[in-house]
Amino acid sequence: MAVAVIDDDVPFWDLYELGVVCTVFGIPHPDLADPWYDLRLCAAGPSPDRPVPAPAGFTMRTPYGLEGFDGADTVIIPSVPEACVDGERELPDELLRALRRAADRGARMVSLCAGAFALAAAGVLDGRRATAHWMHTEALARRHPEVEVDDSVLYVDDGNVLTSAGVTAGLDLCLHLVRRDLGAHVANQLARRLVVPAHRPGGQAQFVEVSVPSSGDEGLAPVLQWATERLDEPLTVDDLAARAGMSPRTFYRRLHAATGSTPLQWLLAQRLSRAQSLLEATALPVERVGELSGLGTAANLRRHFTLHFGVTPTDYRRAFPGRAARGVDRSQRTRRGEHPRHGKH
């Protein structure tokens, strides 16, 4: 799967977004998925091996010009120069034309942070909901009133066009793309290697107040880990609060401050992620997937799964042919009464 990313005239701060794209899509992980992505770094202009200016006294070189967009399944714009955000400078016409051609032929169009200004200038965001770094959303809405700008979320998945807020939210969106393409298991394992949360939903707020724990306070991590190991059990906010040694009100406030989610929203997200992994890696029937993920009946699993992912559990499983066979042994152990966490009953 080819991914083309434009890295022309990279601002210093936005080197992070470019680095995120290169880290997620440019480093193969054959033990997770083979083949991995084919990443192409592209620069405006026809010359091969073109030096791309960067701050701090160094340059980057790429063998691709904008022709690197041709045939790419995904085109990513990680940033644009600050002058283009402020309206002091227009983006190159050849870049905008290349973006329109890619969008017209059906490529998945993605922007991180201020990269949304390029997609908007090319008309790719017309009539769509989109986001960018909160410092730039007002300017984006003012300069492109045809775009429905949401300044509150981490990223927006509008089918074949996706946009993210700035800095770390770009990593959230890139992991979301891996999850869409290769499944929850691969995305979760990659996130673990990057030492970042496996899944922050796109609708989570850009502004998250992370409380500083008092001396001797272990924080929320132990109780959240405890909960993820027991998703197949009935869990309530009172259960989690008691495990954390807090009142339900304090636990609610602490979790919301740290994650932007309520306890019930957090539990549902974890259970849906578990259901994804089971559908990808095992041949378990949908009824059993619902039980092991804590979503209960098959009907309840289908309802939540379709609402959140836009496909039924069965259709989702069909997107990962051959993987379920590798989980047959585990599913057979489960049917024989060997719980994946507790062993034999």
Question: What's the pLDDT, averaged over the residues?
Answer: 82
User: How many beta-strand elements?
Assistant: 12
Structural class: alpha/beta
**Largest sheet, spatial ordering of strands:** 2-1-5-6-10-9
CATH topology of the largest domain: Rossmann fold
Overall geometric form: globular
What gyration radius follows from the Cα positions, in whole Å?
Answer: 22 Å
**Tally of discrete structural domains:** 2
What does this structure look like?
Helix 9 (237-244) packs across helix 10. The termini are far apart. 44% of the residues lie in helices and 12% in strands. The strands form four sheets. A six-stranded mixed β-sheet has the order 2-1-5-6-10-9, sandwiched between helices. The protein has a two-stranded antiparallel ribbon with strand order 3-4. Strands 7-8 form a two-stranded parallel ribbon. The chain has 16 helices and twelve strands. The radius of gyration is 22 Å and the shape is globular. It folds into two domains: 2-194, Class I glutamine amidotransferase (GATase) domain (Rossmann fold), CATH 3.40.50; 214-345, Homeodomain-like (Arc Repressor Mutant, subunit A, Orthogonal Bundle). It is α/β, with parallel strands linked by helices and 345 residues long. It comes from Streptomyces thioluteus. InterPro entries: Class_I_gatase-like (IPR029062), DJ-1/PfpI (IPR002818), Homeodomain-like_sf (IPR009057), HTH_AraC (IPR018060), HTH_AraC-typ_CS (IPR018062), INH-QAR (IPR052158). This is Helix-turn-helix domain-containing protein. Residues 221-319 form the HTH araC/xylS-type domain.
